[in-house]
Specification:
Helix content: 10-25%
CATH class: Mainly Beta
Structural class: alpha+beta
Strand order of the largest sheet: 1-3-4-5-2
Number of helices: 3
Order of helices and strands: EHEEEHHE
Distance between the termini: 13 Å
Length: 106
């Protein structure tokens, strides 16, 4: 079973159904629709839920709309770049692919 790790801050939002989308860069797991997942709290490294991917969309960072950025908690493209460089380093740029993953708890 594939896993997705989340910051502890997101665990409650996911469990309460307020968060059901995540964005990932440099997908090394080959995530696809209908994949079953274990959701892991990155801070404790413990599984907190199981989920199924219900949909995936991919875009370059440069092609993300203002609405998509705001809906995912970013003020603008620079804010998103800065945040993801914190996870992935300087290899994140406007031409980086974003995998937008919708999931539902099972």
């Amino acid at each position: 079973m594939k896993t997705l790790k989340f910051k502890h801050d997101f665990v409650e939002e996911i469990l309460e159904g307020r968060k059901s989308t995540t964005w990932r860069l440099f997908d090394d797991k080959n995530l696809t629709a209908r994949d079953e997942l274990e959701l892991v709290d990155r801070d404790s490294n413990k599984t907190f839920a199981k989920a199924t991917i219900t949909g995936i969309k991919e875009k370059k960072i440069r092609d993300l709309t203002e609405e998509e950025l705001k809906n995912h908690g970013y003020a603008n493209t620079e804010d998103m770049l800065s945040s993801h460089r914190g996870y992935y380093g300087d290899r994140v740029d406007l031409d980086t692919d974003v995998k937008m993953i919708d999931f539902e708890l099972t």
